[in-house]
Amino acid sequence: MNWRLLLGGSLRNLRRFKLRSFFMSIGVAIGVATLIAGASAGSGAAQQITAQIDRIFGPGTIVIVSRELKITHLQAVADEMEQVVAWAPRQAIGEQEISYLGENRLAAVTGHSENADYVWNRGVVDGRFFSEDDIERAARVALIGTSLKQEIFGEGEALGEKITINSVPFEIIGALEPMGIDPHGDDRDMDIYVPITTSMRRLANTDIIGTGKLVLSNADQADADTDQVALLLREEFHVAEGEPEPFAIYSSKFAGKAAIKAKELLGVYIMLAAAVVLLVAAVVISSIMLIVVRERIAEIGLRKALGATPRSIAIQFLFESTSLTVLSGAIGVALGVGAASIIASLNATPMNLTPVSVSLAVVASVLVGILAGIIPARRAANLDPVESLR
Fold this sequence. Notes:
The protein has about 400 residues and is an alpha+beta fold. It folds into two domains: about 180 residues, no CATH class; about 180 residues, no CATH class. The protein is about 60% helix and about 15% strand. A six-stranded mixed beta barrel has the order 2-3-8-5-7-6. A hairpin with a 2-residue loop joins strand 2 and strand 3. Helix 2 packs across helix 11 and helix 11 packs antiparallel against helix 12. The protein is elongated and about 100 Å long. About 40% of the residues are buried.
């Protein structure tokens, strides 16, 4: 059996019927592109989300969330626990109307304290952070995210400029460090920070802050410290024995497990999406190849009459389907890399293309070609040469 002649014949047949080959190949190309782009962009997004979680939940930190949480609750916990080296409240008041020179837009506004740059691990790249005096005076000053700064001021200077938040004037004193997309899919570079006392008195009109964070001296004791925090908060909230706690506590260990689970789920979804597309492509290719067998009955009968074996006939059809899917897979890899690059650029996430994902895509395209060609190949091999030549 001359393998070179079989491969050459297969490629010639594919070139003869270009439109048919195109329709058979497009599904494989899309499936492989989905796999490559999804794996690359998804891995990059997961990497960024993990970095965001690590930034929020650094080693030895505890985050407290409650609809009833006040600064006094955090202060009481910090006073009772010697291992708390720093703490900071956080009041997220959601999207507010931001105005500058008559133009309005919406941006997420958050209240922070003077040590939030250390506790929440986000400082400024220009200007200054809040001072203790800003917090005490409930000063009308603000820190602006880099993307929002670009959107409002372009290449102009933002420091010292006045904006209004819900008609309350604020002076911009700093530009926040870039942070990117958070685990919820929100662009944190569109944020505005204000002193937490200002947000409570002038914007939210409530002393409920909702979120607080503790930094502990020993990360290895985080589990025991979490239990102590829970006990102290139950006392602060006057929670009776057996009643549900009106707060949730998240440690850095919990966040690490959540990040790993999120990456695993993302990988599963990408694989399932690519598998569905490739399965559909295999069905389409198999159906078209069956039509091809019927159209080439006379050719198959002639080859058998001249001595071709059923095995060689079957292998030729397998070669045709596999050659097509391998070429389509190569096109799909190129499309996937391009799509991943565009997605990464638009979402400001790293593109993480690995040899494993490329190898998996190539193997998948070969398997699709083999699976799609089995039934047509067997049908062609089993044709009666006498009946075929009639």
